Amino acid sequence: MDIEFVRSRFIKHFDGKTGNVYTSPGRINLIGEHTDYNGGFVFPGAVDKGIMAEMRANGTEDTVMAYAIDLKDRVDFKLSDPNGPRASWARYIYGIALEMKKLGVPVKGFNIAFAGDVPLGAGMSSSAAMESCFAFGLNDIFGDNKVSQWDMALAGQATEHNYCGVKCGIMDQFASVFGKAGCLMRLDCRSREFEYFPFKPDGYRLVLLDSVVKHQLAGSPYNDRRNSCENVVKHIQAKHPEGKFETLRDCTWEQLEEVKEEVGAEDYKRAKFVLGEKDRVLGVCEALNEGDYEKVGELMYKTHEGLSKDYEVSCEELDFLNDIAKENGVTGSRIMGGGFGGCTINLVRNDLYKKFIEDAKKKFNEKYGHEPKVYDVVISDGSRKLC
Ligand code: GLA
């Protein structure tokens, strides 16, 4: 993706003038899945794939003219229209513009053309990349860059909640805004404190295998998982009126056991996964500090098992990719992101890499009639202005 490509489309589809160009990345997550909306820890990093947008105030009060370059789709809408546009991609623009307005940015009409190379539906947060890119641009064009990075991330999350129907956590928008080349970030989603962790595993690399099965987070399955977790918290709170239980982060294993019968088998399993995952992220941090990548990998496999059996967000294709990783002696492998399709993330020794990829392509193709896509992970910078 390059600036000239986006610029040429911006010029062609609007009035020939140029604007400013912004970019925001997608993300990977080493470990800590479905923990963000439970107040737990996540361990993401931004990648070298993302969204690039050219934007310019168009002098109108509230007319947005938007062009999705990859889809060759043009949508114009007014920010004052209470329903907003119908096209799902345009709702991200509408939503973020209204959320930025809520933060005090005097957003007026603007033109925007954007393109992306973060694969859609792969669990790499193409939607968060859009939200943070557009937020960054609006903050620059209309807001004197007064809105903080955290507020832009939160505005992205609010866009998902209020305009796109996904009650997501904060991990994706956080990673897209705060990413730093060469570093993973450990974020405590309850306190919002985070640390950069330089990630250069000697002798290993990270690679994603994309099953190309598309997940659909909007609507039920993702939100259902969240509801289950919140239900367990409610029951624990009711049993312990003396305490303050906001998320599963505030709950112990013993408290979960106390409500096991009343919350039912399904919600119990979901919460069990989340409590385990919180401990696994901390385990990975310790292992990274000690340079113990075999331990990191072991915890990744445990996460996969939990996501597959207890949280039930895997699918046949992802379990199959995980099995191939195991058979090839890959150090760690698991579903990445929300699940229901998308990618596995694999920590693999350099000397096994080639054989693993060949084997995964061959076996997956034999079974599903197409190869998985392979993305080598390059940990990169977060949202920024390009020109
Ligand atoms: C999606 C959501 C995130 C997070 C992950 C699962 O990517 O947007 O907030 O919950 O799923 O870890």
Describe the structure in your own words.
The protein contains eleven helices and 13 strands. It is α+β, with helices and mostly antiparallel strands and 387 residues long. β4 (63-68) and β5 form a beta hairpin. The longest helix has 30 residues, at 260-289. The radius of gyration is 21 Å and the shape is globular. Alpha-D-galactopyranose is lined by residues 33-34, 36-37, 125, 168-169, 171-172, 337-338.
Q: State the secondary-structure class.
A: alpha+beta
Strand order of the main beta sheet, please? 5-4-6-3-1-13
Q: What oligomeric assembly is this protein in? A: single chain
**How many DSSP E strands?**
13
> How large is the radius of gyration?
21 Å
Rough outline: globular
Give helix and strand order, one letter per element, not per position. Answer: HEEEEEHEHHHEEEHHHHHEEHEE
The stretches of 5 or more residues where confidence is low (pLDDT under 50) are: none
Bound molecules: alpha-D-galactopyranose
Percent of residues in beta strands = 15-25%
Number of helices: 11
| Integer average pLDDT | 96
Spatial gap, N to C terminus: 15 Å
Which percent range fits the helix content? Answer: 40-55%
Main sheet overview: 6 strands, mixed
